[in-house]
Design brief:
It is a single chain. The chain is 7% helix and 57% strand. By secondary structure, the chain is mainly beta. It has a single domain, classed as TonB-dependent receptor, beta-barrel domain (Maltoporin, Chain A, Beta Barrel). The protein has a 22-stranded antiparallel β-barrel. A five-stranded mixed sheet has the order 3-8-9-6-7. Strands 13-35-34 form a three-stranded antiparallel sheet, with no helix packed on it.
């Protein structure tokens, strides 16, 4: 690899081994003992998928078929067969998400609208339960979320609010990326991919020392520059980097525990921009003989963003306690969480903060009761009280009803409230004669009504359909001054509604051939509050297509050969010159032995290039290229 060698990443892994015992602080997958191995997720039948355990909806294991929400699970086998080489690319598999690529290193990801580099800030993303929310501008800096896909067991995608359990910023949805536990990685494994646009390498070794399982991981990647739309654009967005992880796990006096440490360094070619950081996590989970379960999770992370125009250093600490028990027809759960950020942000241009350093805190307590009203009918009542150092206190309630008329279908409905807390830019950013701070900027608020139906009408068919109506208040606007226009000030001057449908289905044509399809429809209407003005004319609503659709075919040609083909169609974006487009991906794999495989993958095969995002104020507009590459895999 040109920029990051496998040997260098291996050195990071050794460093992580030395760091973990000293710093292992915190929060990792609370479901260490409940996560199936990668091998278990291969060749799952429709019945197996329906019974797959998910934990992100109610913070406890439950069958996907019984989860009363719009939940889609991306399995490790789905990721492998898609040929995805980055986390956002793997998220395209979820039909209830909008995923758009900006350039070689930047993406926008959201659910149920608001998808643009500026407005994709209402989706909570977790890695093993650790939030990767970025409090400078809200949302996720995907170039700092360095997850090796060969290390992922599954990704749980919930569209719809999850504020009652997950808190602030779980507004339009929750994504929880769950990586493999230490006991699932035994012996050596490696994967190497190379093609005209991208290169990847992964190394893993796992084993057991006494009663302790361990896993050491390293990953490196190198993406070439994309092509500019503007001939005058001479920037080079080539992106490379690597990460390493050490994970330990085991049992102690009847409790499951885990420790994890990881480090990463990523690099943008053009401006020498570097993204680096470390995180340390621990979890402890015990279920007593009486059925009472207790979980304690904590984590610490440090991220550094160093570019020619800015420097950001962000440290975060989080501790969470949760307790659950069953009393008759009630499944009770309660707990609390406290998170603290230390921020240092220095810009070298017109925009700046009066005080580059600040600290931000969020604290919350919650309680939830799932009541069995009668067989097949469940009512869930939840409430979270949360306070943050920017906008104060918020109540986040949730009422959810689930009815199973028989073993093969579930009908559900929910009413929820969620908020997106203000970020530093909204409250503190200023620029002489152009932008003034907004110390009174409030949280954006959502009231959501949802309903859905999940069914398995036949042994080889599964369906999911959900509808929603979202009402937003206090949305961000760029208020201008009459006559002079400048200076601008960020205010809560807009409101709006969105409504839509999400649907997906799977059909096993026979034991060797599965066809999957999914689609979502989105409509939205935004308006200013009486007396409010907006300099960017409703830019708050993002760049969303009216529809998205996908079809995937997974064909096991023989015991050793598989061929997958996927097609996706994305509608045009009205507020940006992004045309509707259709693309195809293909995957061909030959399993030489039980542990060795060769694969050929192609992405965006229908066109040499296309545009997915148009936001020149954030980044130069780039074409997204066709990509073809080969992979050698051992042990995965």
């Amino acid at each position: 690899m040109d920029r990051i060698s496998v040997a260098w990443v291996g050195a990071l892994a050794v460093s992580a081994v030395l760091i973990v015992p000293k710093f292992a602080l915190a929060a990792s997958a609370r479901d260490e003992a409940n996560t199936p191995s990668v091998e278990d997720l291969r060749n799952l039948s429709i019945d197996d998928l329906a019974n797959l355990q998910v934990t992100s909806l109610s913070k406890r294991p439950e069958s996907l078929s019984e989860a009363p929400a719009a939940v889609y699970v991306i399995t490790a086998d789905d990721i492998r067969r898609s040929g995805a080489t980055s986390l956002p690319q793997a998220l395209r598999l979820a039909p209830n998400l909008e995923v758009a690529q900006v350039n070689a290193y930047s993406w926008t990801v959201t659910a149920r609208g608001f998808n643009s580099p500026e407005t994709a800030n209402k989706l909570l993303v977790l890695v093993n339960g650790r939030s990767v929310y970025e409090p400078i501008a809200s949302g996720v800096l995907w170039q700092q979320v360095d997850v090796d896909l060969t290390n992922v067991t599954r990704i749980e995608v919930i569209s719809g609010p999850g504020g009652t359990l997950w808190g602030a910023n779980a507004v339009n949805g929750v994504i929880n990326i769950i990586t493999s536990q230490a006991s699932a990685a035994q012996g050596p494994a490696f994967q190497v991919s190379a093609g005209g646009y991208e290169r990847n390498a992964s190394l893993r070794y796992g084993g057991k020392a006494g009663d302790v399982w361990y896993k050491i991981y390293a990953h490196a990647f190198d993406f070439d520059a994309t092509e500019p739309v503007d001939p005058a654009d001479t920037t080079n967005d080539a992106f490379s980097g690597g990460n390493a992880e050490v994970r330990l796990g085991g049992k102690f006096r009847g409790a499951d525990w885990s420790l994890k440490g990881e480090t990463y360094t990523n690099h943008i070619a053009d401006n020498g921009g570097t993204f680096s950081g470390q995180s340390y996590a621990t979890s402890w989970n015990r279920t007593g003989d009486s059925g009472v379960s207790t979980a304690v999770n904590a984590w610490f992370s440090r991220d550094i963003r160093n570019e020619p125009t800015l420097y950001e250093s962000r440290e975060a600490f989080d501790v969470e306690f949760q307790r659950a028990r069953t009393l008759g027809d009630h499944q009770l759960m309660w707990g609390g969480e406290f998170r603290y950020w230390w921020e240092d942000f220095r810009s070298f241009n017109l925009f700046h903060f009066a005080d580059p350093k600040t600290d931000i805190s969020i604290g919350s307590v919650f309680a939830q009761d799932e009541i069995t009203l009668r067989p097949g009918l469940r009512l869930t009542l939840g409430l979270k009280g949360e306070t943050n150092s920017y906008s104060g206190f918020d109540w986040l309630p949730n009422v959810r009803l689930a009815w199973q008329p028989d073993d093969n279908q579930l009908l559900w409905a929910a009413v929820s409230r969620a908020v997106r807390t203000p970020n530093r830019i909204e409250r503190e950013l200023e620029a002489p004669n152009f932008l003034i701070p907004a110390p009174d900027f409030k949280a954006e608020k959502l009231t959501a009504i949802e309903a859905g139906w999940r069914a398995q009408p036949a042994d080889r068919v599964s369906l999911s359909l959900s509808a929603y109506y979202n009402r937003y208040t206090d949305l961000r606007t760029d208020a201008y001054t009459p006559v002079t226009i400048f200076p601008l000030q960020l205010q809560n001057g807009a409101r709006g509604t969105t409504w839509g449908l999400e649907a997906w289905a799977q059909f096993d044509v026979n034991q060797a051939w599965r066809v999957s399809a999914g689609a979502n429809l989105l409509h939205k209407k935004f308006r200013l509050k009486p007396g409010a003005v907006d300099a960017i004319n409703a830019g708050v609503q993002g760049q969303d297509p009216d529809y998205q659709a996908q079809v995937r075919s997974q064909w096991q040609i023989s015991k050793t050969v598989e061929f997958d083909l996927s097609l996706r169609a994305v509608g045009k974006v009205d507020l940006a010159p992004v045309k509707a487009y259709q693309e195809a991906d293909a995957h061909l794999e030959w399993r030489v032995t039980d542990t060795l495989a060769l694969a050929l993958d192609g992405h965006n095969l229908l066109h040499a290039r296309h545009i997915e995002v148009w936001d020149p104020s954030t980044a130069p507009v780039r074409y997204i290229p066709r990509s073809v590459f080969a992979t050698l895999r051992y042990g995965f």
